[in-house]
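Recall that a protein's primary structure is simply its ordered list of amino acids. Everything else, from secondary elements to tertiary packing, is in principle encoded there. The following example makes that idea concrete.
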Amino acid sequence: MALFINKDVFLSALIGQIYVKRILKCFSYQRSATFMIDFGQCIRLENKFMKLKVLYMKILPFEGWNKYNNVILKYKNQIIVNKEIK
């Protein structure tokens, strides 16, 4: 996962920390946002990072950078976001 991120200029500027659980679930913490990203298993990373780019380029500029507290990319063809409840 780290090698994949380092090959992409956009992703390497975006992702500040990766956390891998014992059961091979990957999580990421962003440099510029306040949410955590759940990638699920570290497979099909190209597809998951493509969805992350869609989130950053087409959703967050309109919805706001701090509106969500969790992003889930582990499901095929889905971007799931959880809004912060105040």
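Residues 45-63 form the longest helix (19 residues). Strands lie at 15-20, 25-30, 36-41, 68-72, 80-83.
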